[in-house]
Amino acid sequence: MGITVIGSLNYDLDTFTDRLPDAGETFRANRFETHAGGKGLNQAAAIGKLREPSSNYSVRMIGNVGDDAFGKQLKGVLKDYNVDTTYVGTCSDTSTGTATILIEEKVGGQNRILIVEGANGKTVYDSKQLNEIFPKDSHEEEYVVFQHEIPDPISIIKWIHENRPSFQVVYNPSPFKAMDTGDWVLIDILVVNEIEGLQILETIFDNHFVEQVKEQIKDDFIGEYRKVCEILHKTLIDQNKKGTVVMTLGSKGVLFCSHENPKVEFLPAVKDVPVVDTTGAGDTFLGALVTQLYQGEKLSTAINFSTLASSLTIQKKGAAESMPMYKDVKNVM
Ligand code: RIB
């Protein structure tokens, strides 16, 4: 097998503007564009585009679209990047998921995203279907990648844990949803941004502790997030004795640690990048990271490759389409 992404496919409706309107105000924006998106599709596309070209492992997308033009287009985009769409279902009773994205051009292409789940709400599988998606006789290593734009990734993760324990589970809790503290141990590779990192902390510690951390972040951003990363690793993810935590800090860089190297390391972001649109930067990072780890690279090498890949994505508009190919990243290494 290879790498499987179970998640969302969205049709992105992007409006580029100098600023956001106030409540009740009408404001003239600069441009409107449509792009392929959804965190699941973006991550699958990133894996398809960023895997080492001579490698022959498969990349699969598992999810749903509506029986409409958007859905057909999204499947087509995945096929263009050699992602297997056998298990992308077409639902006749609902439309393809959408994301309305406002991109503020004067503040570094930062975005605000509103999603309507549509067919992503149907991405729920019972044990019989999971047995078909992940046949028991497969002996190859499998990575399975999840985000949280589908109803219940955790129950699928639990099924994998019980039925295919050799698989590596990669989880990006975005949009964030609290889960039982004991369930974090089911994750092998946790990829969060700094906001999600604090949101997880809020579910395990009292308010006072988290408020204190937030105060200290103002004085020592990297140092304090380093501690957050360490707490997530030690108290949640590495309880399985093989857990890895990667925390992205936007334009600042990335923190990471693993069972083998529990001391949190920091890699700064690429400097002086002309930012056009940050949509899909996190998904590019995650897809790149997964390909590199699957191909057997060291965590630090994988993080370096992924940082470069996402620095290329933000220089172009859109999500999946703006992601670089493997050779583009190698060219800037
Ligand atoms: O991570 C970026 C993605 O988030 C967009 O493509 C949008 O569809 C939302 O899912």
TrEMBL record:
So what EC number does this one have? 2.7.1.15
Source organism's superkingdom? Eukaryota
Q: Which cofactor does it need?
A: Mg(2+)
Activity regulation summary: Activated by a monovalent cation that binds near, but not in, the active site. The most likely occupant of the site in vivo is potassium. Ion binding induces a conformational change that may alter substrate affinity.
Key word Signal present in the record?
no
Q: Name one GO cellular component term.
A: nucleus
Q: Which PANTHER family match?
A: RIBOKINASE, SUGAR KINASE
Q: Which family does it belong to?
A: Belongs to the carbohydrate kinase pfkB family.
What is this protein's record name? Ribokinase
Organism source for this protein? Saccharomyces uvarum
Primary gene name: SUVC03G0960
